[in-house]
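User: For a reading group we're discussing how well predicted structures match intuition. Take FAD-dependent oxidoreductase. Before you show the prediction, I'll give you the sequence so everyone sees exactly what went in.
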Amino acid sequence: MTEPTTHRTEVVVVGGGQAGLATSWHLVRDGVDHVVLEAHTLGHEWADTRWDNFTLVTPNWHCRLPGYEYDGPDPDGFMTRDEVVAWLAGYAPTFGPPVREHTRVTSLTERAEGGFRVEATGPDGPEVWEAGSVVVATGGYHVPIVPSWAPALDPSITQLHSADYRNAAQLPEGGVLVVGSGQSGAQIAEDLHLEGRTVHLALGDAPRVARFHRGRDCMTWLAEMGLYDTGVAQYPGGLAAREKTNHYVTGRDGGRDIDLRAFAAEGMRLYGMLEGGAGTELTFLPTLTAALDGADDVYRSICRDIDRYIDAQGIEAPPAAPYTAVWEPDTDPTSLDLAAAGISTVVWAIGYRPDYRWVGAGVFDGTGRPTHSRGVTALPGLYFLGLPWLHTWGSGRFLGIAADAEHVTGVITGRKGGARTEPAADLARRRSPGEIASDVALAG
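Assistant: Thanks. Here is the predicted 3D structure of FAD-dependent oxidoreductase, as structure tokens, for the group to look at:
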């Protein structure tokens, strides 16, 4: 057996996505010796796990990393998957991070003499890295979730997770059942619907949000209101916010609402939460009406919050256009025969679970998620970045990565002050009248 090559460095960063690269930018700036270990290639998740017609759901101006931001012609637009891949690919060359691609970390353990031992497999064989600090920047979406009873479905039914969905043409002919109405599920259902496929959608409890309200993108309003800068502990329910599903909306074709009621009026079949199944028979909970009403309540609540902000600040904005439901279910269906409905494919869009089994440290809760305060664990020298709601709603997104990375690297180096990240609220306010007028036209 080949003996591993041993290396020593101050910091090991595990993961070369936006979180890992943002961490490296700060460490390079501060002259800290470190390495970024990436199992595949930099930013591969964007190219490998998004479907062909994927677009960002946040405006392009949200795309900001330390020392690097979107500077294209459409700050209020929504980059496609390929545009995001190209934009992110331009980041590393601006500061030269010490990256080792195709190097998969297999083990992280504490060293008796202090610090950590990181074992990995690289292009040339096994490697060992000894470091005083480790930043785990692999995100929180590792293992696609599929129900334990999924193998009991008829083998003639094609099953795939949303991570493996690319386009309608890859699926066999026939109807498609999409399970899950979060961002991925709702957008994949939209993609299939626009391609003319017969779509069935099983809803969870995901809320929705208007794309535009009173002349501006809702996410721009929310950023200006400070929502993306508010720490998770300050939200109602506190840390429970980390378990909430993101609102569904789309950036496709310049951005618009995803209105499942409108899709239903056009022929999409909607159901409540999927309960179970075997063979070709599925059962659902009678939650469809409540799911639609709940999503609409959140939609209206966000619009009212924006209205109050507009009034309080004395902002001139176009009048609100209240949402009116265009479709109501006659009943909440509780069963479906896949064969009788002509459904050939099930797309599971019910999320992921974390997998940190390679981390040999007692910093996890009963669900396998790391316990931390803004990425800093109780074990000195071990940190996490890139997690949803790590600190704010913007954490895990391009908009919040810079501040989180700066905080964690500041703890590592003991640095006080330094380059400060501009709050999202200030970024949102730095918009010209022309840009706001552009929003009005888009919303109109």
